[in-house]
User: Fold this.
Amino acid sequence: MHIHILGICGTFMGGIAAIAKELGHKVTGSDQNVYPPMSTQLEKLGITLTQGWSPEQFNPVPDIVIIGNAMSRGNEAVEYVLSRKLPYTSGPEWLKNNLLQNRWVLAVAGTHGKTTTTSMLTWILSDAGFNPGYLIGGVPGNLDLSATAGIDPFFVIEADEYDTAFFDKRSKFVHYLPNTLVLNNLEFDHADIFDDLDAIKRQFHHMIRTVPNNGLILNNADDVNITETLELGCWTKTQSVGQQGDWQVNLLDNKLGNQDGSAFEVILNQQTLGTVNWDMTGLHNVYNGLMAIAAARHAGIDVQVAIQALNQFKTPKRRMEQIYAQHDIHVYDDFAHHPTAITTTLQGLRNKVGDARIIAILEPRSNTMKMGVHKNTLVESWQQADKTFVYQDQQQSWQLPSDINLKVCDDIELIVSQVVDFVCPNDHIVIMSNGGFGGIHVKLTNAINNKFTNIS
Assistant:
């Protein structure tokens, strides 16, 4: 079958393309911006890519068109598909009908931690000797690919609450048919498509309704929004994870005497089952790991085996990924784009580094951030940082309050120069954005290296 994918260079749609190719289909696709690394990955798979939306891309006519959720009415390619009545579907629906119907699906949902927890769970299954299928919305550290069909019954998927397509406004995860469902957390986000928190709860409950009664739902016992959503109706066995849950942790001190999440005991029903010692930090990652262990156990993986796998776990790209460590200066790239994620990320780093200075650099890039939905809670989120630099372009309609430890700039080059002037050895810099941030990562690390190389 010839499958043509509109919006192919997004992480999710690129994963769909890779899986379809692996299943033996001819795959082509297009996007407005065709550039590495996704374009390179797809081309290596033998997938022909078209830049833009010209109708010529439909020659020869594909058997079916998969339309990404970034595509909307008025788009030239979309209008061509509709006017010619070409068969079309969404990525989640195609995945459901062609792969998930006959698999043991382990789905990871939540406002925060989806990519990391999905990567952990996939790695546990892989390290245990299985060849699972998976689709991860990021680049995993322990695995060669972000998506594959796999061979064994298990399929691990990052269950995103964002809408499916312009013709299907349900959340993507409604299509995934989970046997094992992880509910990490639930907060208001995606203000561009959800009116309020209750609207998100409804979508989560739609997914809960699809879990069979012989499945398992792992829920965050400390999240009131998850609890309230389950109270709308649940027909599946549940296990809770959290301070008051079935699954609990005992944090252990690091070398500074702080509980930074780098070591913790795993407890189930008040029985200690083992200890995780890994490179991750932050209480949020501790509970991501605990969720992954619990989900793997439901799939038949012994807890000790799962713990040993997590001891070797490498963080996914852009999840507190250390991208520079020279001249006693450490720079991290992190995907945090919500006040809660920013808070937990910086708190974890603070517990790790003690009194060392932390410099936070933030781009409020998500649609929710741009709309100013979180402007009142954003300032509190970086209180663990000694200095914060925020990029805000002139088109944003809201402004941050002035603060002695806060610098707001509309010029990335200026942020780089100011950070380089401020930074000293033993500092830790965290760059937080869910986009490319104008190439600031390379610009900043090069500038730091030039400064301190010249000094030495």
Remarks:
- The longest helix spans residues 283-298.
- The chain has a mean pLDDT of 89.
- The chain has three domains: 2-91, 99-310, 321-455.
- Residues 193 and 336 are 20 Å apart (CA to CA).
